[in-house]
Structures are given as C-alpha cells and as structure tokens.
Amino acid sequence: AIEHTLSIIKPDATRRNLTGAINAKFEAAGLRIVAQKRIHLTKAQAETFYGVHKERPFFGGLVTFMTSGPVVAQVLEGEGAVAKNREIMGATDPKKAAAGTIRAEFAEDIEANSVHGSDAADTAAHEIAFFFAGIEIVG
Ligand code: CMP
C-alpha cells in the first residue's frame, strides 16, 4: 500500500550540507518528498517529539543535539514507505548500519545519526501531524 512516513534530516547533516545528498537517496529508492520544511526546534518541541524516550539515559543529550541547529522535517510517500525508509536509513548505530545506507555513509555516531524515520504506520501518522498540516502535504 502507498504509505506516508515522517523523516527528519538532523542537525549533524544540515550542518555538513548533506540535505540534497540525503534527499537523492530517498528519491533514488522511489520515495517521493511530498512535504518539506527547514526549522530550528525549540527545547520544548524536541522534548515533546521524543517524549517516548524521556526515561532513557540518552534523552538529555538527544534534546540538546536536536536543538543544536536546523533540521529538515519531511513527509515521504511511497509503496511501503515506513519500512522502505527504515531500510534506506540503516541501523540507528552507524557502526551496525548496512553499506550504502544513509547512516553508514553519513552518520557521525549513534546520536548524531543524520536522519530520523517513523518506526510504524501509527507512529508515522502521529509524527506527521506533529510537524505538518494536511494542506502542506502535496502528493
Ligand atoms: P532516532 O531514530 O531519531 O530515535 C531516537 C534517537 O536517539 C536516535 O535516533 C539517536 O539520534 C538518539 N540516540 C542516542 N543514543 C542512543 C542509543 N543508545 N540508542 C538509541 N538511540 C540513541
């Protein structure tokens, strides 16, 4: 089925001017960028977005990192987009990410790992609604 998933190009990647290189990987894999905006998250916004992780030891560092520079939030559309995007991104830890994946090629470490992608269809709907109004998603 055609799905939508939420992607974030993280501050380590925008800082190194990798937005276009990452978008090229999505498009080459058949994912369509149907919404996109560059924003600088506030601490409150980052804490809310990553709320499921608030008890994890990396939460404080994650919020500091995600607010350290601009991010590019995007909606990707395509056949099985949620799983396909996770495949293109590779494992959270770039040391474990398969060759050719975004994280293997671009991530700095397990925290500054260049991209976020929704982990399931229900999470995707919730995460897309966090960043975008329906009118901003143009398929
Ligand atoms: P993401 O897929 O956006 O989901 C949670 C983020 O927390 C993760 O990518 C990393 O940026 C960050 N993170 C930092 N340390 C860890 C860790 N040990 N395990 C998982 N995620 C981590």
Automatic annotation (TrEMBL):
One of its GO terms (biological process) is GTP biosynthetic process. The keyword Kinase applies. CDD domains: NDPk_I. It catalyses: a 2'-deoxyribonucleoside 5'-diphosphate + ATP = a 2'-deoxyribonucleoside 5'-triphosphate + ADP; a ribonucleoside 5'-diphosphate + ATP = a ribonucleoside 5'-triphosphate + ADP. The keyword Transferase applies. The active site is at residue 116. Coiled coil: none annotated. It comes from the Bacteria. Keywords: ATP-binding, Cytoplasm, Kinase, Magnesium, Metal-binding, Nucleotide metabolism, Nucleotide-binding, Phosphoprotein, Transferase. Residues 2-139 form the Nucleoside diphosphate kinase-like domain. It holds the Pfam family NDK. Its cofactor is Mg(2+). Its EC number is 2.7.4.6. Homotetramer. Belongs to the NDK family. This is Nucleoside diphosphate kinase. It comes from Acidiphilium rubrum.
